[in-house]
Amino acid sequence: MDFALASEPVDPVEPVPVPVSAPGAGAGGEQLYLRRTVSTAAKLLVVGHFAVGKTTFVGSLSEIRPLRTEETMSQAGAGVDDLAGTEGKTTTTVAMDFGRLTLSDSLVLYLFGAPGQQRFTRLWQDMTQGALGALVLADTRRLEQSFDVMGLLEELGLPYGVAVNHFDGAPVHPEEEIREALDLLPETPLVTCDARDRVSSTRALIALVEYLQRRTAREHA
Q1: What gap in Å lies between CA 155 and CA 77, rounded to an integer?
Q2: Which of 5, 77, 136, 194 is the most interior residue, by most CB within 10 Å?
Q3: With contact defined as beta carbons under 8 Å apart, do 126 and 153 qualify?
Q4: Which residues are CB-contacts of 221 (< 8 A; sequence separation ≥ 6)?
Q5: More confident of the two residues 4 and 220
Q6: Nearest-CA neighbor of 60 among 90, 93, 101, 117?
Q7: How many other C-beta atoms can be found within 10 angstroms of the C-beta atom of residue 175?
Q8: What is the pTM of this model?
Q9: What is d(CA 70, CA 54) in angstroms, rounded to the nearest whole number?
Q10: To 10 degrees, the CA torsion angle through 58, 207, 144, 152?
Q11: CA dihedral in degrees (93, 104, 64, 193; nearest 10)?
């Protein structure tokens, strides 16, 4: 797959000396220098309403230990956050989640998961700076809560795809019905995933990247 996306290149890494005893060292014992491949870095957001699985999604994908800013939910937030359908949730993200995923030899993705509550809207508006696109996680039990998130992305002009996260016991609907319920454009990617599963989450992210690639190709045609 050719992921030629318009983004900032990763800073080149300084030449790495190869020890004399290593294969490929010079015949006279001199050190040889290898330069690591310079990849393209793409910033993507993982967004969605409260308790839709963003932290789990980023955590299942990240090849590094993900940065998490979760705090224990207090009784004071019960009157602010809609806890319907999330009775087992005890923590919430208060700043962001961050992870990294190498998708190919030439593309590294930096994933920024944003808090879902409306009071954090200003925070993740700032996070859209420099982002190529966003993946909106959705829950079939609360599809209507995705509208505010998608509406804000559209106002900011940030392209996005939608991944319906699987929750045990959640209703399952045909793709056509979900696409109609969310009023998605025909070209907007819509996939299903299980945020707990790395393979499933990777497929959802690839669907978004391929969509962004097609948009970039059209813009440069």
Answers
A1: 28
A2: 136
A3: no
A4: none
A5: 220
A6: 101
A7: 12
A8: 0.73
A9: 12
A10: 80
A11: 40
